[in-house]
Specification:
Elements lengths: L1 H24 L27 H5 L14 H20 L3 H23 L4 H16 L6 H25 L7 H39 L12 H25 L2
The protein binds zinc ion (ZN).
Length: about 250
């Protein structure tokens, strides 16, 4: 029963994240005006706003102007729902679930803005830093010392990677947004899981980029945003990081 409630609430959250993705990109207010079609500006009714189902029933087109709706809308809604259900399965209905819900929301919104516009908005980082600091100060995510270590490790490690890339290959390999994002994640996860997030993001990013090159979807030298890999790695570390570390220590002992 609670799973059903989590599924429904997270679908609605996903639909809110879609609004954030669209409006943060275009610099508009998140609360006003009410949802409307980006192409014909018609205000959307309740029937147009049911997560995933509206998109399927309307066959991916606006009811008023028949313009195609981006598949990003149902994708974000489904992805949000699945990730919150997974997190609920691991954490249960606890205070840490509430704290990490904020982080997860920021990771999802950041991922899609980074894919569409290759930027990670500072406003999202700031919201993450403030909530991360708050929840570690009251020891819900991790202790404050561990959180600050996580922040320094996340921020510092990618800063070094970025400086080295600039020095060695004279290219901006790592954006400032990526550096701030991993620092912010570190504040929520503490230093151990941040180190794991860094390693996982390099692996996932490397394998994914290789596939894009092999499938000729990208050319050598094309820009591939790194933020989504950091976000995915952070999410994996949050849910299964301690198991992965234990397993790694076990096989290497
Ligand atoms: Zn329309």
């Amino acid at each position: 029963m609670t799973y059903l409630a989590v599924a429904i609430i997270s679908l609605l959250l996903g639909s809110f994240y879609n609004v954030c993705i669209h409006r943060i990109q275009s610099g508009k207010s998140i609360v006003y005006p009410p949802s409307h079609c980006p192409s014909c500006n018609h205000t959307l009714g309740p029937l147009d706003l049911v997560p995933v189902f509206s998109y399927m029933i309307l066959l991916g087109k606006c009811r008023y102007c028949r313009e195609r709706i981006s598949p990003r809308y149902p994708i974000v809604e489904l992805l949000t729902s699945i990730s919150y259900i997974l997190m609920y399965k691991t954490l249960g209905l606890t205070w840490s679930f509430a704290a990490y819900s904020v982080l997860l929301g920021i990771l999802i919104i950041t991922t899609f803005i980074d894919i569409e516009q290759q930027i990670i908005p500072n406003i999202l980082i700031v919201i993450g830093l403030v909530t991360g600091l708050f929840f570690s100060a009251i020891s819900i995510t991790t202790g404050i010392a561990d959180a600050l270590l996580g922040f320094c490790l996340g921020f510092g490690s990618l800063l070094i990677v970025a400086l080295l890339a600039k020095l060695l290959i004279r290219k901006e390999g790592m954006g400032g947004g990526d550096i701030k994002l991993l620092g912010m994640i570190g504040l929520f996860l503490g230093w151990k899981l941040t180190l794991l997030t860094l390693i996982l993001s390099i692996y996932i990013g490397g394998i994914f980029s290789l596939f894009l090159l092999l499938l000729k979807l990208k050319k050598k030298g094309d820009y591939i945003p790194f933020g989504p890999f950091i976000s995915l790695a952070g999410f994996i570390s949050l849910l299964w990081g301690n198991n992965i570390i234990q397993w790694y220590l076990w096989i290497s002992s």
